[in-house]
């Protein structure tokens, strides 16, 4: 290119074009090649983004099934045993309500927002667990505070009722990969935490409760594994 540009304007004997004209033709072809390359790259990016979108939508759809109570039911025998807390849990009572809330991302956001408040209250894998026994009794600790009593489990609705002399509270079981979730209505979780702890006036507890109140059909609680 530089060589062509530095030459005097002479006609090329073979083509009949002046050297400046040859340069312009070559420059045009070069720019055209660059444009074609850029268009090809843009097309590749668009296709890639489309594929990513399909993957993300597929993942969201798969997770949506996991974040709805009762779609993959926990059996009575599966509920039995010792379950240790591993993190906040959240799910919705129907696929429609999950979709209305914004999809799987809504459940994830509630769990993420709940985690620091759980930590402030003192809930950890070391001091929070529940054991369901075959005779209908349960023992548990939440943030180190012991709680025991009787329970009933309805496989059809996945509802667990926990009872003792102090209270009766309903929660729901949801099957998870490698474990289960024990989930509550917002006000029921607040009642449970206030009943078994010295945090009845703690603002963190109220915040935990408020997290799911703005989402119709959301249940919040604990992801557990054995």
Written account of the structure:
With 226 residues, this protein is α+β, with helices and mostly antiparallel strands. The chain folds into two domains: 2-66, no CATH class; 76-225, Lipocalin, CATH 2.40.128. The chain is 46% helix and 27% strand. It contains seven helices and eight strands. Helix 5 packs antiparallel against helix 7 and helix 6 runs antiparallel to helix 7 (203-213). The termini are far apart. The relative contact order is 0.14.
Question: Which of globular, elongated, flat, extended, rod-shaped describes the shape?
Answer: globular
SSE series: HHHEHHEEEEEEHHE
Poorly predicted regions are 1-12, 30-65
- Please identify, by name, the CATH architecture of the largest domain: Beta Barrel
Main pleated-sheet profile: 8 strands, antiparallel, barrel
- How many E strands? 8
What is the rounded Rg?
31 Å
Outline the fold blueprint.
Layout (H helix, E strand, L loop, with lengths): L1 H5 L12 H48 L9 H4 L1 E12 L2 H7 L2 H18 L7 E4 L4 E6 L2 E10 L4 E5 L4 E9 L2 E6 L1 H11 L6 H11 L4 E8 L1
Antiparallel strand pairs: 1-2, 1-8, 2-3, 3-4, 4-5, 5-6, 6-7, 7-8
Helix pairs in contact: 5-7, 6-7
What would the keywords be for this entry?
226 residues; Lipocalin; 8-stranded antiparallel barrel; 8 strands; globular; disordered N terminus
